User: Fold DUF177 domain-containing protein from Sulfobacillus benefaciens.
Amino acid sequence: MHIRVSDVKKWVGRQEAKHFCEEWPELVQERSPYPMRGAAEMDVTVRNVGRALIVELEGLGHVEAVCSRCLETFDLVVPFSAAEEFREEPGASDPNEDFFRFQGDKVFLDEVVADVFGASIPYAPVCGDECQGLCPVCGKNLNAETCHCETSTDNRWTVLSQLEFPDDPSSS
Assistant:
């Protein structure tokens, strides 16, 4: 996945936009903890700021995630966005630098998209706010069926029910 920057490089202040709707780069698929669904859709804007190009991207991705509460698979929509600096310098990008390098008339976006998309996936995805999860006793999916298991409460926590809190925390 790349964007051509030959015109943008010519003048400071110039910018160019492109809409992508294509297969996910292999690097993104390798780094994603979940299988990718559908095409990569994103808008990319490249702006010449003099010593560098600023690449802004914003998009949506779909992955086949596993709910951390009920363990069912579901389609997770992952919004992602970033603004990264690219400098036309020889050599490979160094992870310790706060910019990416490019050469020639193309800026390759695979590394940026893989980093940003991977960081945008929630650590513990949930299929919905109403998900009840699994019964801690029998393991049934409480979204699909009810169970009549008796749950026990640790008596050490009952003292907390006696605590009183003011209605307005700012009044104290």
Observations:
- The first helix runs from residue 26 to 31.
- The chain has a mean pLDDT of 88.
- The chain is about 10% helix and 35% strand.
- Residues 2-120 form one domain.
